[in-house]
Amino acid sequence: MTTDHIDFLVVGAAKSATTWLRHQLQDDPAIYMPDPELHFFSREYERGLDWYTDQFTPHPGARLIGEKSNTYMDTPIAAERMFKALPHVRLVAVLRDPVERAYSDYCMYFRRGSVTADIEAYLDPERAADKRFLSVSRYDLHLKRLLSFYPADALYVTSYESVASHPQATLDGIRHHLGLAPRAIAPQARKKINDSTSELLPLGIRRALAPLKPLVAPLRGSRSFEAVRTLLTAPVQYPPLEPTLRKRMEQYLAPVSSGLSEMGIALTDSGGKLPQGQEA
């Protein structure tokens, strides 16, 4: 296949229910999306377009082909690369309260052992040397960049809050943007797609077992595997987001809301919103 066969991209944001959305779209036989995230236009561009298109092996009956890579929205060079290769695609962006998204992102990396418990070193605008967690939440800058290449009617914007409050209406709006009729949410969507509350193996054990992941992957879900996992796992205790830190984050991220408003993008909890004046 060629890039002409790719119909849509889910571009982010991370920790904003895009995994839920991918599961919902993949559940439809009319849609094909590869696993895992390709991150081609953000991280793997050197591999070339032939490598990219080789990652798509659509099944018979697939009417739409697309992919989800959360890094496309916040990687500065990605928008230009996407438009050069895929000027025709439809885009879907799922946003989230900027502070909550940044904190959730931090918690995910904390679970992985990639960041320490010194939460202010990562989320405090006044202390963080690398503001990655905060910068990903600057949706105003990211969407402005996307819209400097793509027409406004190519972009559909919805939110994590919409998914949480109105999953069916949110999915219907996204499907309409992609040219598809409404479809009931898949059974797995009734389970909250959020790993932050699940128990986890201690970090030392996870690191020791990391080389064995390919070997144990086929056993996941089996009764014996889950029994052993239950014996070893423990709840994750996340560093709390204290009110004083939240306030500093809110002040730092205040331009997000005004910036989105200037682009005519207003998010509610009742389903997706296109840039104002546009039709799906």
What is the CATH architecture term of the largest domain?
3-Layer(aba) Sandwich
Side by side, the strands of the main sheet go: 2-3-1-4-5
Determine the structural class based on helices, strands and strand pairing.
alpha/beta
Give the helix level as a range of percent. Answer: 40-55%
Between the first and last Cα atoms, what is the distance in angstroms? 27 Å
Rounded radius of gyration (Å): 19 Å
Number of strands: 5
Query: What fold name stands as the CATH topology of the largest domain?
Result: Rossmann fold
- N-to-C SSE string, H for helix and E for strand: EHEHEHHEHHHHEHHHHHHH
Mean pLDDT comes to 86
What's the number of structural domains? 2
At the first level of CATH, the class of the largest domain is Alpha Beta
| Main sheet summary | 5 strands, parallel
Number of helices: 15
Features of the shown structure:
Rossmann fold; alpha/beta; disordered C terminus; 5 strands; 280 residues; globular; 8% strand
Give an account of the 3D structure.
By secondary structure, the chain is of the alpha/beta class. It has 2 domains: 3-198 and 243-262, P-loop containing nucleotide triphosphate hydrolases (Rossmann fold); 201-234, no CATH class. The protein is 42% helix and 8% strand. The protein contains 15 helices and 5 strands. It has a 5-stranded parallel beta sheet with strand order 2-3-1-4-5. β2 (31-32), α2 and β3 (64-68) form a beta-alpha-beta unit. α8 packs parallel to α15 (254-262). It starts with 7 loop residues before the first strand and ends in an 18-residue tail after the last helix.
